[in-house]
Structures are given as structure tokens and as C-alpha cells.
Amino acid sequence: MIIALNNKCNLTKPEFITYQKELTHLSTTATLILCPSSLYLGEIAPSSIKLGAQNVSSTECGAYTGEISASQLKSASVKYCIVGHSERRANQHETDDEIAKKIKLLLKEEIIPILCVGEDKTKRQENLQLQVIMEELKMAMKNLSMEEQKKVIIAYEPIWSIGTGIIPTNNQIEEVINAIKKLYPENQVLYGGSANEENIDELKNISCIDGYLIGGLSLKPEKLKIFLEKLEN
């Protein structure tokens, strides 16, 4: 079971130091991946928590002001990296081609991509969610060998659910994850989108979920502790 914590653009440095100390009190058999703001990648104290990044450049090192390359992430002991999050697709206009390049560069540096895919509210209402997701996967994997494809962790995040507190039904989640696994049977598939300590009792009944990509809840160690306890009991 994988639990990836996406802090997004949150926490000042003093807040992050306190937050990191609180995370050390968590007890879980799951693989915990912390994806802090890039500013704090060098602040992570050695622990059982794996280090992840929230983004990577689609280019190698060079004259790209403000970018962080895959090789730089590797030198900072980053093991995982989120790619193609819906917020970056929407706000930074990240394209499928850029996402594909990022995945290729990460794998070159032996960093495991966590590829986010998901439909917006309109596509869900039109029952086009599988079409959208399969196209995003196809474009992201297009430059990869079969062996490289197997290394990518896929995170299903229905865009209309992120941060809203509204989640799909178990049947809706199962439909998507089973469709993904039919095409990529050896890949781990996470669920993200308003998963929290209140709905995990229901979500954990979905046996095809290999873990969770957590956003808002990741910033609340006391509630994350409850989430983990319920998940494992």
C-alpha cells in the first residue's frame, strides 16, 4: 500500500519543520511518500518516509530559469515525482507532450513518476471519463518501452472531486481503476480526490486500489493518523 502526501503550495519553513516532526509519530505498514514544496526538498531529515517531488522540468539542466531537472531531484535523494496533476494541467497549461517528456527524464534518473489522470465534471456527466483517462495514459506512455511503462505509478484523481469533499461511488472508482489495470496490469494504481479519515472506511472496501494520493489531509498529521489507523484495521 502506498500513501503519497502532496503538500502542494503550503507551509512556511517554521511550519514545515513542525509538520515534519509530527509525521515521525505516524505508524504504518504502508510506504509513505512525502511530496513537499520544492523549497523544502533539502530539509527532509532521514527517516522511513520516502521523498517525492511535486514537479520536474521537461528539459535537462541548462538555461531554464526557475526549473528543476530530474538529475537535480536525484541528487537531492528524491525517489518519486508527481507528474500531470490536474492543477498543473489547468493552471500551468501543462501539455501531454510535456508530461511524456517529464516521465522519460524521471525514469532516466531512476525516479518513479506518479502520473495523475482524471476527468472533469463535464466529461463525467457525459460518461466520457474512460475515454479521457485512456487518452491521457496513451499520450503519457507513448515514448516508453514496456519495461519503463511498468515502473509508472498511476493516480486516478477525478478532477471534480479534488478538494470538494465529494467522491465518486465505489462502483465508479472500481470501473476506472479496473479499466486502467486491464491495459496496465502490472502498474500500481492509486486513488486521489478528497480521500480523508471520514470516508476511508468506505474506500478501503475497493480491493483494486493500491494506495492513495492525499492532498488536503496530508497537511493534518493528527487526521492523517486516524486515516492510516482506519485503513489498516
Notes on the protein architecture:
- The protein starts with a strand and ends with a helix.
- Helix 4 crosses helix 6.
- It has 10 helices and 8 strands.
- The protein is globular.
- It is an alpha/beta fold.
Shape estimate: globular
Q: Main sheet? A: 8 strands, parallel, barrel
Secondary-structure element series: EHEEHEHHEHHHEHEHEH
Please identify the oligomeric state. single chain
Q: What percentage of the residues does DSSP assign to strands (E)?
A: 15-25%
Mean pLDDT: 96
- Total strand count, please? 8
- Give Rg in angstroms: 17 Å
Question: Helical residue percent?
Answer: 25-40%
Can you lay out the helices and strands and say which pair or pack?
Elements: E1 2-6, H1 13-23, E2 31-35, E3 50-53, H2 70-75, E4 80-83, H3 86-91, H4 96-108, E5 112-117, H5 121-125, H6 129-141, H7 146-151, E6 153-156, H8 170-183, E7 189-192, H9 200-203, E8 211-214, H10 221-232
Parallel strand pairs: 1-2, 1-8, 2-3, 3-4, 4-5, 5-6, 6-7, 7-8
Key structural traits:
alpha/beta; 233 residues; 10 helices
Q: How do you describe this structure in short?
A:
With 233 residues, the chain is α/β, with parallel strands linked by helices. The chain has ten helices and eight strands.
